[in-house]
Amino acid sequence: MEGSTSRGGSRHPTLRRAPLDPSRRTPAARAGQAERTHPPALVFDAAARQTWTAFYDHVEREVGSGGSLEPIRGFANKLPEHAARVAGVLGIVADPRCTEITSGHIDAGIALAQHYAMEALRLFDAGSARPEILRAEQLLDWLNSRDGELISLPDVYQFGPNAFRDAKTALDAIYVLEDHGSLEAVEGGAIVNGINRHQVWRIVGRSP
């Protein structure tokens, strides 16, 4: 890929087809190729160039501090180039003699690049999730599988998932769910399953 500097320092790529292995060409093809030292370039048409530039600028903003692509900055910096390459491949597949990348090609290339960016973010989030958050999500899944509006601390460490077999671990997860609005503490306790409990929470959104 070659590029030329544009407004704001953006670079517009120019794609060149990779030459085929000479040993796999027919004699006629080899003779024709010998007359050309470089394969033809693929360039953006005006509309595609405008779309790609907007995507480039968007990525530049989002890889900055606090941007949505900051966690995968190293990968995201190459998204415009990936989008352009995919667009070029799509153009050649549609018409092996094409010399321009159209809006349809670059739209598809950008869509695919964004898909891979979302996957990279998902994997980053999965790998960086704090253990206490994962435990709280496990507890919430268990709570959602049960009937009733109220839950007590002993219910969690006596009958809940194996990860919550002591009061401290159970309480830590409950506090996380409380902070995130999934549980509400019942002041003064309540009767749960026929037993008067001192530490009780109401599952938010659950009917009595």
Would you summarize the structure shown here?
The chain is an alpha+beta fold and 208 residues long. 50% of the residues lie in helices and 15% in strands.
Provide structural commentary:
The chain is an alpha+beta fold and 208 residues long. The protein folds into two domains: 2-128, no CATH class; 131-203, Arc Repressor Mutant, subunit A. The protein is 50% helix and 15% strand. It has helices spanning 27-34, 46-62, 73-76, 79-94, 103-128, 131-144, 153-159, 167-179, and strands at residues 2-5, 11-16, 41-44, 100-101, 150-152, 183-185, 190-192, 195-197, 200-203. A four-stranded mixed sheet has the order 1-2-3-4. Helix 2 packs antiparallel against helix 4 (79-94), helix 6 crosses helix 8 and helix 7 (153-159) crosses helix 8. It is rod-shaped and about 85 Å long. Mean pLDDT is 83; it is low at 1-10.
Which percent band covers the strand fraction? Answer: 15-25%
Question: How many strand units?
Answer: 9
What is the H/E string? EEHEHHHEHHEHHEEEE
* Global morphology: rod-shaped
Radius of gyration computed on alpha carbons: 29 Å
Number of DSSP helices? Answer: 8
Mean pLDDT: 83
What are the segments in which pLDDT stays under 50 over at least 5 consecutive residues?
Answer: 1-10
Q: Please state the structural category.
A: alpha+beta
Q: Please estimate the helix content.
A: 40-55%
Main sheet specs: 4 strands, mixed
Tell me the strand order in the biggest sheet. 1-2-3-4
